[in-house]
Amino acid sequence: MNLPETGRPVDDLLAEIVRLKRHDLPVRGGQVTAYVYDTGRPAAHEAAARAYAEMLEVNALDPTAFPSVVEMERQVVGAVAGLLGGGHGVFTSGGTESIMLAVKAARDTARRDRPNLVVPVTAHPAFHKAAHYLGLTVRPVPVDLGTYKVRPDTVRDAIDGDTVLVVASAPSYPQGVLDPVEEVAAVAADAGVPCHVDACVGGWLLPWLREAGATVPPFDLSVPGVTSLSCDLHKYGYAPKGASVVLFADPAMRRRAYFASAAWPGYTVVNATVQSSRSAGPLGGAWATLHALGRRGYVDLARATLEASAALREGIARVPGLRVLGEPESALVALAGDDLDVFVLADEARARGWFLQPQLSYAGIPANLHITVTGVTLAGVEAMLKVIAESAQAARRRGPVVLPEGLVELVAGLDLDALTDAEFAELAASVGVDLRPGSGQPEMAVVNTVLDALPAAAREAVLVRFLSVLYG
């Protein structure tokens, strides 16, 4: 970007933003089944946006300078704690930061020389990220390939003297099922190890589903042995992005999540989060959303979500060649294909204006498409099912992606560090995936098929280069 010589008018800037967003997926309406959460209630979104703007320039770095931050956070964290079994919390920028703080607190509490985490293979990669940043080792354990839930006995077998944290998901993102939290927490407690429940997706949904009539097993801080829990408010709390809470059963453990430094001659540094300076906009947006919807609003949204999820599962079962993986207990549905390529199906749906999120095969779990059901989904569930059925037929006609012979072996054997971004882009373009500026949105079936055929380490290396080329 070349900075303009003089400032540009606001209307001009907003028009430019609209132009830049012309190829973005829509954030309202329910046709994007990942990344965004829509209530279908404009008034609630408007309240959040206005509160976000009001708090935009307030810096949460120093709560003594901006006491509004303290009061809002107390209310928001208090609401989450009140719903999820109590505890002492921190408002964070998202699930990854909440998980990062939970891992830090566990590491600093245990003080092991070679600390490790015991996590199901379905646990969110945020735990791997936290371990990477904080110097821990991840000890992944398999899940049952019928239920997609972790088994307590495999967790018990993976724990050793250096384990500082055991993880269970409520629900796990890939298939939307709840790990047996009570049993896993009991195993962890028997071993004297803290247990974190990743309820980033379900924390602000499962209690309302229960109130709407669903059967939801215990999963929160009221469960003996659960020592911390993460809950995202920018998911089923429907707050603007940048809103999550991590709760600790013990206030001493919450203090382990904090960071303070006095080894310099400047201002006092004490942070509750990974970030230092940060806008209080997300906090204001979350606070306003909770007030704008209220308990009744969340129960009504949960009831609509429950109905839409059931309709979606039943509708997918009627599409030849498709099946739902496991028995989802929340509002996340994963569908796999028996005789058709789900990656091609995703491209066909995208061409029809719908985004279904591809998920790669891993640890015996087949490649599939992920759908996040939100409050707005019910109004369009029949339209979604129609698109899925049409896209499945089109995918069957097209057939699966056929990769050039030897391509996977070539990619797996490449020294990607020896390639420039331009050379990597040329390699991608040679197999029909043009990432170069001005080339438009590539179909992703080829990309996903290549990634699906690679081992995890090679996938990660390719994804890093993919991102590097996109940003140039």
TrEMBL record:
Molecular function GO labels: aromatic-L-amino-acid decarboxylase activity; pyridoxal phosphate binding
What is a single Pfam family found in this protein's UniProt entry?
Pyridoxal_deC
Quote the InterPro entries the UniProt record gives: GrpII_AminoAcid_Decarb (IPR050477), PyrdxlP-dep_de-COase (IPR002129), PyrdxlP-dep_Trfase (IPR015424), PyrdxlP-dep_Trfase_major (IPR015421), PyrdxlP-dep_Trfase_small (IPR015422)
Give GO BP annotations, semicolon-separated: carboxylic acid metabolic process
Going by the UniProt record, its keywords in alphabetical order are: Lyase, Pyridoxal phosphate
Cofactor names from the entry are: pyridoxal 5'-phosphate
Q: Which residues carry this modification: N6-(pyridoxal phosphate)lysine?
A: 235
**Which domain of life does the UniProt lineage start with?**
Bacteria
Q: Which family does it belong to?
A: Belongs to the group II decarboxylase family. Sphingosine-1-phosphate lyase subfamily.
Q: What is this protein called?
A: Glutamate/tyrosine decarboxylase-like PLP-dependent enzyme
Respond yes or no to whether keyword Flavoprotein is given for this record.
Answer: no
Q: Answer yes or no on keyword Lyase.
A: yes
